[in-house]
Amino acid sequence: MKKTVITYGTFDLFHIGHLNLLNNLKSLGDELIVAVSTDEFNTLKGKKTIVPFEDRIEIVRNIKSVDLAIPESDWQQKEKNIKEFNVSIFGMGHDWQNKFNDLKVFCEVIYLPRTEDVSSTSLKQKLKILDRSHITDLKHTLDLISSIVERFE
Ligand code: CTP
Description:
By secondary structure, the protein is of the alpha/beta class. The chain has helices spanning 16-26, 39-45, 53-61, 77-84, 120-130, 132-151, and strands at 4-9, 31-37, 68-72, 89-93, 108-112.
């Protein structure tokens, strides 16, 4: 019988940690389904992406180990997806450890090690250094420090 694996995520600024996770998950079964959070769902979670949903899902859909990419638009759909796709394994990275144990009544639930030293958040921080408004902020801070130093000269 075909073994289907499913995972969920935002996959903003697609990076090597995402690729490793998807490849590792695929190696556990025959078919990998990836649910990508929509922009509306991310807003609900208080998360803002750099890359819009249509692009994020298109990138995930074209990863070699991914057989099907679907939108994730609410918290309830995991149980529904597991049943409709006859999923054998629900897998997430370690940052979600124990968060989805209630799904164990429907299928196997696993948490894989994350790839170290990379995340969408850290990439966004690095990009921020190049951001014009950040440079303007830095300039204002430098001007302020200069004016304080001048007072003591
Ligand atoms: N992931 C991983 N290794 C990383 C980063 C992410 O295995 N270095 C996994 C997560 O554990 C999750 C999936 O990739 O199961 C999608 O994660 P996502 O939240 O989209 O990526 P992050 O880079 O963790 O994003 P953020 O920094 O916004 O949390």
